[in-house]
Request: fold
Amino acid sequence: MVAAGMAAPTVAPAQQAQPGVLHGQVVARASGDGVRGARIVVDTRDTTAADSVGRFELTLAPARYVLEVAAPGYSPGVWKITFRDGKTLEHVFDLDPAYELPGVVIEGKPSSIGRRFADFERRRHAGMGYFLTKEQIERAGSAALIDILVTVRGVEQVCISNTCVAKMVRSPPGCYPQYFLDGNESTPYFARNTPPQDVQGVEIYRGSSETPGEFLGSNSGCGVIAIWTKSAP
Reply:
């Protein structure tokens, strides 16, 4: 029984868990160089792509996850990574070259690069969206991709603290474009920091009315920026 005039103790609500963040890089074990074209699969279902020097970022609820990392020319690797409440983790994922049997000639399928950029050209000639070709990017001579993106009509630069990002002019405040890197949804940080000299082409769709079905993602209503690198498989 609570005495008169004394308030019953209150129970503080449980604090909501904050996601954990992983900053990763995929490297060749022998040289330590970043591996281009790496793909990271989380618990066999969610996939993200590393940038041209093997970097990627994941933000996940606190838990233990199985990450499978694979790249052309390398044997895939599997890691178990624990994401902790509100913590940022940095980890290097090293891959070994794929083993080749001596004296065996393997006839591979034709490269998919030509087909991928045929799709790029097909969409470019369809007249929807805005396209930056390798030649335009090289002529611009910019050190940062953001400097090229903001030359496109309908794209503006928004600076938050010390970070400047691209945003569609027609999008409301806080509504930022979905990035794709080599056909896969990507974290904005690594996609927009892809070195321009590594880029083969960029597709920019300023709203859902322009965006083709292959780029409809979790946040494509705020626009889409699809980046294709020269080294993608």
User: Anything to note?
Assistant: The first strand starts at residue 20 and ends at 28. Residues 100-106 have pLDDT under 50 and may be disordered. DSSP finds four helices and 14 strands in the chain.
